[in-house]
Amino acid sequence: MKKYLVDKKEDIKGLEVVERKIEITPNKNFAIAIIGPRRAGKSFTCYYLIKKWKIEDEDYLFINFEDDEIKRKNREEIVKCIQTHVEIYGTEPNYLFFDEIQNLQDWQSFIYSIVEKKRYFTFVTGSSSKLLSKEIATQLRGRSLNCIVFPFSFEEFLISKKFPLKKIYSSIEISKIKNYLLEYLMKGGFPDVVLEKIKEKVFAREYINVILYRDLIERFKIKNIDAMRFLLYSMVESFSKEFSINKVFNQMKEKGMQVSKNVLYEYFSYIQEVFFSFLLKKFYYSYRKSELSIPKIYMNDVGIANNLSKYQFSENIGKLMENLVFLELKKQELNNIIEIFYWKDYQQNEVDFVIKEGLNIKQLIQVTYASGKDEIEKREIQALLKASQLLKCKNLLCITWDYEDELKIKNKKIKFLPLWKWLFFNLSSLSFFKR
Fold first, then answer.
1. C-alpha to C-alpha distance for 8 and 219, rounded to whole angstroms
2. Alpha helix (H) residue ranges in 188-338
């Protein structure tokens, strides 16, 4: 254990770390839970904090529970890590970093006992949704704060490309932004891809295999591997669309694959738990109806959606734009700022996003790959107008590729805004950190 603790710090010193637009304030009264999808940069967020705060070796302890050396150790040896640190350095650490904490058996009691002492700045990371705010608040009895780390946002993508962020851009700069946005929609925001450590298609194939075998089959002891694989790929093919377990069940049945519907629902919940995809429920005023509705499904990264899809990029752009908008809204929902839904009526009129704050519908958003007014389909505008009337919401937004305007249609104002501008000026510099 002593060798591991020392060697880990030497490894961290040799790493090149990219700044993330995430703000964290240490607090000895709470554990900081850094959560999000696998490979999104949670570990590197910890490394970044260590380097940013210039923490000396004797002041911190770092354990990654996915490291083989740790997996081979028993729990008793691990929970004595602070004593081991004292044996090495002669002093207690001020900062404790526990990476992929969900892999430690009974991690909740271990972390709670540490936080209760109020002597350390404690950070935990995890790839499981069981570490989300409501869950971890219960498990740590109110002794936690959340920091949610996703793959690079478009803003962070531009920072990595050393593109200047400012309030006003020239026509040439706007063209460059749109070109970068196309690249982002194609490749996604996972740091390994953005920093060109691995090609996006290779990364996507490797990523889904790691999710399948390590996060799902290994962690949840999955027995029907073929069924889980089929479900996983079916979800990718359905991104930005409604997704029915019944439909997948019938498809499996036709192929002669034997699996019960209950098992499929169970597998489906596991996939949500590891942040591979997210569900968007249909809006009803009735909570029960909304929970029982057929959800739409979105991937944790547009690059994963694009590079695992059977369709060409040009065929996917509209859906990728919608997936990207969803992810930015989801970050706010995970921090309890808003609630998001989609809306659809019996005539198949559909609005992509219904934004709810408390009891009020704050905004209706439609996303379309359009560069001019004539390219926007009438049914999308009609759906916005109808939802506006039924949900009593006047704040109507249509996110486009390259069309900007504000029109009055049937006595209702609709704002049209390019995606890049919405990403910059509506959601720019959000700190996804909330108590």
1. 25
2. 191-194, 200-210, 219-220, 225-237, 245-254, 261-273, 287-292, 302-307, 313-334
* pTM score: 0.87
Q: How far apart are CA 270 and CA 111, in angstroms?
A: 24
Nearest to 297 by CA among 282, 307, 313: 282
Please identify which residue in the block is written with the tokens 């958003």.
365
Phi, psi of 313 (to 5 degrees): -55, -45
Q: Please, which residues bridge with residue 406 across strands?
A: 415
Q: What is the CA radius of gyration of the chain?
A: 23
| Segments of the chain assigned to CATH 3.40.50.300 | 2-148
pLDDT along the chain (435 residues), means of 10: 93 85 85 86 91 94 92 90 95 94 85 91 78 57 76 92 87 94 97 92 95 90 94 95 95 93 94 92 95 95 94 93 96 87 94 94 95 89 95 96 92 94 67 29
| Measured distance CA(216)–CA(270) in Å, rounded | 7
The CATH homologous superfamily for domain 2-148 is P-loop containing nucleotide triphosphate hydrolases (3.40.50.300)
